[in-house]
Design a protein that fits this description.
2 copies of one chain form a homodimer.
Chain A lengths: L4 E6 L12 H11 L9 E5 H8 L2 E3 L7 H10 L3 H9 L1 E8 L2 E6 L4 E3 L13 E3 L5 H16 L4 E8 L8 E8 L4 E3 L15 E3 H10 L11 E5 L28
Parallel strand pairs in A: 2-8
Antiparallel strand pairs in A: 1-12, 2-12, 3-7, 4-5, 5-6, 8-9, 10-11
Chain lengths: 257, 257
């Protein structure tokens, strides 16, 4: 059963997040400033950047010593070898490294540019942020902490902006989650004319992440979180983001690009 | 400037759409049944299926005569050669054809399974729907017709559900649009600390499509359209879906899968 109506609200009242900050508390307080409070069944979407900031997931280029491999890849991709070393530290596999792109599979299984390292909205010269450490565990902790602070059962989704094959422009992917089923499986259900659907299973988590991005800020607008209200509670439940990853050997698109 | 709040409402009052139906009129009437009316700046998202139905974009397997190439691909993919012929008719290039998948680039540039042909929610044994003919032109016509019927300036987006590399589950892509800029380009803008953003350009059209899918139906629920209200009017404007397509030769992910 689909929801009648979704509301998506950007959470504007957050201060600059710093390492060690109690992010769930900042969210609750930020929402309060906007006249909002959590309801049971709300989905709260957080940009990777504030989660990484609260975790202190930064590095400075000057603290890295590049390996021979990093130096070699840096030459091919015209990047700083220390930056390449940081990317390699986060990666399980390098898929492309040449003039245009350094594309890897991260240790968490996400295929993306530069292992998600970037310096946008990060303070300090030569300072970059890493993706959060264990985003599923972090989402679960945030969910539990919101329950403790407010008594409300919410779902939590951590997202980041990624490029994709075939399509122009970036979209959001869910990189960590708690309290919702990331996939809705229609296979075996009947359509309008009683045919069984054979292929349809929808990535709700990535769709929620995209929906949230529409009210979140890139750049200097400072809207690093969104509240989604009205999402069907039957879609909630305990899960994690692992089911969103396709392993290379069974990827339908193998060899197409 | 990001919107404060988005509302996303599934449009439930549509009848079964048939070839030749005046889809914009059905939308206006369907919304009226729900107590809704179009506002300037609304984004109306339509599933490919109702647009194809209104255009009469169907074929029956028994009407197709497979070529030798279709027969050969059908053997490799264990599909009906007439179905394969229909896929080839819609495609500019076959990217993968083996036991697991028939992946093509359509004449409109979309990389997908089976050129978007399917029979879910289509009436009649052996009858399949094709993607709409010229979805951008169709979106523009729907936009103009809604203006004529209601006096309101809306944006129109036609979407379909597609599989993607690397990620599990399907999401919506915008395959045709009118009245909105599909991409928001942040490159050159400043972040919280005054750094210039170098890479960020977001596919708003695909994000809107994903947001709409959260209230639309796949199976037998019959919610083939959604209204998105609160989308920033600065993001509206005249455009089409061509800028959402990356040509193969410049695809950053070339060789990664």
């Amino acid at each position: 059963m689909r929801p009648q109506e979704l509301r998506i609200v950007g959470i504007r009242g957050l201060p600059m997040v710093r390492p060690g900050d109690d992010l769930p508390r900042l969210l609750v307080e930020g929402m309060k400033k906007q006249g909002l409070a959590f309801h049971d069944g709300d989905v709260i979407v957080l940009s990777q950047k504030i989660v990484s900031k609260a975790q202190g997931r930064f590095f400075r280029l000057r603290d890295l010593l590049p390996s021979r491999r990093a130096v070699e890849i840096a030459k091919r991709t015209k990047k700083d070898p220390r930056f390449v070393q940081a990317v390699l530290n986060e990666s399980s596999e390098v898929l492309r490294a040449d003039g245009e792109a350094l594309i890897v599979r991260t240790k968490n299984g996400i295929t993306c540019l530069n292992a998600g390292l970037d310096r946008s909205n990060v303070e300090g010269q030569g300072t970059y942020s890493l993706l959060p450490f264990d985003p599923d565990a972090e989402a679960l902790w945030i969910k539990k902490r919101i329950k403790l602070l407010t008594g409300r059962k919410v779902a939590v989704l951590i997202c980041d902006t990624f490029s994709r094959p075939f399509r122009s422009g970036q979209v959001e992917f869910a990189i960590g989650l708690a309290g919702l089923n990331p996939i809705e499986d229609y296979r075996g259900k009947k359509d309008l004319f009683g045919h069984r659907l054979r292929f349809k299973f929808v990535s709700l988590a990535d769709e929620l992440a995209c929906a949230a991005e529409l009210v979140m800020g890139q750049g200097d607008e400072g809207i690093p979180a969104a509240l989604i209200r009205g999402f069907n509670s039957k879609r909630l439940g305990s899960s994690n983001s692992k089911s969103l990853i396709v392993s290379r050997s069974i990827d339908l698109f193998r060899g197409t690009i």
